[in-house]
Amino acid sequence: MTTQEYMELGDKYFVHTYNRYKIVMDKAKGVYIYDADGKKYLDFASGIGVASLGYGNKKYTDAIKSQIDKIMHTSNLFYNEPAVLAAEKLVKASGLEKAFFTNSGAEAIEGALKMAKRYAYDRDGKSDHEIIAMGHSFHGRTMGALALTGNEHYQKPFGPMISGIKFAEYNDLDSVKALVNDKTCAIILEPVQGEGGIYPADKEFIEGIRKICDEKDILMICDEVQCGMGRTGEMFAFQNYNVKPDIIASAKALGCGVPVGAFVAGKKCCNSLVPGDHGTTYGGNPLVTSAVNAVFDIYEEENILENVKNVGAYLEEKLDELVNENKNIVLRRGKGLMQGLVLKTPVGDTINKAIEKGLLVISAAGNVLRLLPPLIITKENVDEMINILKECI
Length: 393
Ligand SMILES: *Cc1c(COP(=O)(O)O)cnc(C)c1O
Fold this sequence. Notes:
GO terms for molecular function: transaminase activity. There is one protein chain. This protein is an alpha/beta fold and 393 residues long. It folds into two domains: 3-57 and 303-392, Aspartate Aminotransferase, domain 1, CATH 3.90.1150.10; 71-301, Type I PLP-dependent aspartate aminotransferase-like (Major domain) (Aspartate Aminotransferase, domain 2). 38% of the residues lie in helices and 19% in strands. A hairpin with a 2-residue loop joins strand 13 (329-335) and strand 14 (338-343).
């Protein structure tokens, strides 16, 4: 079949929830992806922040291959070695206590939501608790995660949403305070908002939320699905601040390509879910957790966080130069290798031009050009990206 025929067949058989680019991706190596016609693309999207180790890392692929030959699935009725080791790594990296593996980011959010509700139920025996989420947030597409997502466009056709969710303004602590009451059981935020337009939390804001949560026995949940796993230069984005959340949700780069997520909870609430309260058939199976183990090992051996700090600083510098030179760019926002350029116009055209010239970038919030490169990129890759981008904006 030709490339064109594959795309037509896909359009015939997929539920049409994505307007895909007219490209069939075929293979990848390092920080480059190749389409089925052999065209090469520099990847500054990582499959939406997933492929943090790039493509074809031998240690990573070997780990998965050897696990496939051993055992792929056990169910959670039994222990399996990779899941145990991966839970330990996740707990140590986050400084929290206990982990629950899921298959996606949305499911990690669902679990965090249930844990928070259960914690509050144990506290006062009621089940009418409220959760404060942020405007312009994104937490996923399942009904619970969608209810927390501060985007009316995503929610409206699917109402009614689960009740008891209130929205505050990101980086506006007073707007959070105004919503807190005796029913509040959790406050959820992304330490750096992703889909909403690459907004890092102000120090006063995120630390202020921790303070409110401490005072009122409210759980602080950080959605680290996009900004976690090293993307900001710390393993988790909250570690850039002087706070420790009660629960974090992780996914995307947690498995660097295999579908895996997790929620990880601290001392206060990690025992509030008990046998029978929550479950998953696939979650944390040996296939995906063998990948998680390899990811943590490779991050350490290859000094990934160090690279994010170095190359991230260089990327910021180069982007700031671009902002100064180019009147179509309003400003840059971001942290580490999670960067956004706010453009004066919608970003669709720019992205199409970039893809045409062999550079993959994505959008956020309509007018933000979002850069989420693999965390292994070099300064040379940044120069290569800037040279292409210059011609597209
Ligand atoms: C992508 C994303 C999710 C949802 O993850 P899925 O794996 O697509 O379900 C949740 N939160 C944030 C911040 C995300 O970026």
